[in-house]
Design goal:
alpha+beta; Lipoxygenase-1; four-stranded antiparallel beta sheet; binds calcium ion; PLAT domain-containing protein
Amino acid sequence: MWNLFSKKNFTVYVKTGDRLGMGTDDTISVVLQDESGLRSGKCQLDNLLSNDFESGRLDSFQIAIEDGNFGDPVYLELHRDKFGFHDDEWYCEFVRVLSEKTNQVHMFPIHRWVRAGCPIKVKEDDAVLPQDDENVIQRQEELQRKRDIYVPAFKEATGMIMVLNEYPVGCDHEFLSAK
Ligand SMILES: [Ca+2]
Ligand SMILES: [Ca+2]
């Protein structure tokens, strides 16, 4: 029973994309889930007096999970909630979680824009192909969103150079390499 009284401490590292506009001042939170399905609460990542999640930064945060039975995280949910009226888009490269108890590092690749109110759920070391993606609906929504962005822009663009210039930085990688 002693386990119930020992918190689990984690250090959460978050890498923000390094191009202009990729940083945010919105509220960022994570939910961790272990292999037995236990979920942490929504942990807000916020360092006092620090401007977190700016372009190119690797920020680190300490979080504690009260439930001592919580194991090591295998799933991660990443949330962005608007801080003000402005929708401050954020591009996250990855989240890495260090368990202080086991000294294990858990890597959660993100490599995408995180939409306000639409949490991204990723599995540890997730490198699945699109057709094997467990989060099919999420993937479809992303594709639809890309179409919404790209289609009107293509009509107006006169060539690839202009196309590249007109897109939000970071959105173009998957799309262009998939062609
Ligand atoms: Ca931004
Ligand atoms: Ca910030």
